[in-house]
Amino acid sequence: MGGAAWLWALRAARHLPGAGGGRTPAPAARRGRPGCTPAACGAPSAGSASSSSGDEALRDKRARILSRGLPKQKPIEGVKQVVVVASGKGGVGKSTTAVNIALALAANDSAKEVGLLDADIYGPSIPKMMNLKGNPELTPKNLMRPLKNYGIACMSMGFLIEETAPVVWRGLMVMSAVEKLLRQVDWGQLDYLVIDMPPGTGDVQLSVSQNIPIAGAVIVSTPQDVALLDAHKGAEMFRKVHVPVLGLVQNMSVFQCPKCKHETHIFGTDGVKDLAKTLGLDILGDVPLHINIRETCDSGQPVVISQPQSDAAKAYHKIAMEILRRLPVPPA
Question: What is the pLDDT of residue 272?
């Protein structure tokens, strides 16, 4: 039981019948009076009986709390499968990867409907990468309608605030916003919802993992040692909350000079592949460090859409295919 839950149970137990309703009076000896205490003389005391009753009530309360376990997962209405794209740290190209994976999933089968949720409340980047602006409309049921481009339904905190406005919120407000982005959106009927998670292993990751069923997680990292340390933590976090990790994506794996075609491993060689062996996971694909990937996302025309025949686009298509191979059979 966590510290907060323990304190809550303890406070609740103090007000239960038989808990004494307050502090147990101190024995006479402790108040500086002469003579023996009931415990020292072997006689039962009223305070001991009250304490025993209170302990029993507290144990019952703890048992009831523990029996509740983790929050019950509730599917997102209309969404068949959720895939989260995560990383242990920022700056490894996670959002770029999430955007291109979503587009590649849609391109793989035009009959499939794909959505993209930007769960990074503090630094939403999906609106710019997907070339979307404006505020969501509301349905008669007071649900937000996702904005759509390239056939992908998108929702982001970036649609609800000004582009340059910082989100200066504490954890509870962030959690409330994430809950609204999950539950108060009319996603329609989606085969896949790709969630671009914020970096790290904090409240948002834990809340999303515990409150909705997730078909699988994809961990993105560069081959750099510092990034790999955090990617390892990210993978272990999903395992702890029983979310299947589909595999790792090695991003910015190699840089090829556009003039002489010489290849340089700026962030190291095969670091993610070594981590995959350590974790017993698969490598879903390698994405090169290429200027076109950055430029196309900055312009709101991701490489999978704007340059579908490029090596970078083919890399994302391969990753999408590997994800599909590892996903469980979707519900009917």
Answer: 87
